[in-house]
Amino acid sequence: MRYLLSQVEIDLLKGTAITAQGTKAIRAKTLAVLQILIQHADQVVTKAQLLDTVWQGVVVQEQVLVQSIRELRELLGADSIKTHPRTGYQLVAEVIPIQRIKVANYRRSAVVLTVLILAVSWLMLSGQWGAKNHAAHYPTVAFLPVENAILDDVHTAVPLHGLAYLSKHTRAEAELHVVAAEHVLTTLSHSPWYSDDTGQIRLSRRQDVLQLQERLGADLLIETRLSGFPQDMQLQYTLNFNWGAEQGVVFAPDPEQAYQALIARLASRFGGHEQQLNVQRHLDFSNEAFARGVQLYLSREYQDAIAALRLALSHTGDPLTVRRYLAASLANHGDVTAALALLQQNIAATGDGAVTQRERMRANLMMGYLLINWPQQANREQELADAETYIATAHDQASDSSDHLFIAYALEELGKIKRIQGRYSEASRLLHSALSYHQRFDAIYGQTNALIELARIATEQGEQQEAERLFTQAQQVADASNAIPNQIWIWLAQADLLRQSRHVELANQLASRARALAMDADDPVLIERVEAWFASAPIYTVN
Known about the structure:
alpha+beta; Arc Repressor Mutant, subunit A; Rossmann fold; six-stranded mixed beta sheet
């Protein structure tokens, strides 16, 4: 997956270009355009084909493609890509695979290699090789590209970057034999389990896994899936052996820290000598059940998730995270009272460790969120006051640990309470403060929720022009990163306000746009929220 174009070394896995001036990162969409042009070298690729493939399912202006072509020409030279007016583009720079450059070196060492092969063969036949190396046998590991469940442009490079990172660092840090990322990609591209249209891998049967393992020569095939939100992510993994599979999940603020956590587990589990892969060893049942529960929760199969998470809770020595997911599943399934009781247990948990402190903070924030969005008490004012107490506590805990993400979350929820109470000046101050925190993060679309709340305040005060400006700003922020969930959330918020003001037809038009985008993204959370709007049901869920 490395090529030489116009004296520039392109690494499609890492998304980098090495020039005389040094290494430069290539923007994700621009990298995708270049990959298609390389695949169709010396052919004219139509603008429609590029837009439909790279910006699949998203309505964009042709200017976004023009920008990517401009960036590639700045990198490779003005004559590297030819424009065919009103048709498309053609890569005319010579595409030289890096492996081809190295062929001469391989030939020069052929004689030496032959001698080494003969020597190794003699050792194996004499039994000396096996005797010396049996104790040093490590399993051969193969990673599949990381499945990216984060619907934005910021994490477009996750599948290939994750594969490259896991392969390289597992080999170096866990001292395991790892199938090269390039070989994995080549094998997948010639397999029935990879779709050129969607870029997704589907191993639907156990037999598919075994066949792919055999093709790759791997004892252990690892599937991973990254989900969550920037600064607050989870990496689910499945370890596929010849005898079966195990699941697990790790949490981290960013992708690379999640990969490192998985590598540490692999090193601990398989990095020793004489590992036996034909039997189950060191199996953490609570983590297996927890991973299954998280998977069901993310699929919105709440009833089954509740059963798996209760099983995990009864076996784990670290219940806080399991309890949080169980509380979220119960709330989304309709049992808010049981969810609140579980979160109270987390709030009461003792210990000064970083994990315990963060779970207490999360529990306070979730308690307030549930009380705001799922009223349980007859006295609504008291309920909002209780919610404010919990969220203010979460804010203080986040401030003590300098957790800017959760400070922003807490400020948003406090602002929402003030809006519901009609205290608009206080609400605006809190929401603008939340915006200032979100603007510090690379994923700028985190600003969306605060902007929506500010637009609601403007609408409730009769300042329709200001509301429209804020919704436009929110849309620009979401569009800049192609953050599909945020685009949908903005449309639903606008539709909700239109329906309240009895502009039903316009409301349905916006909600229909949200429905189409959710269906195109094939995301069960988004589909559920949109359908809830059409059913005039609460569109909130606990994430």
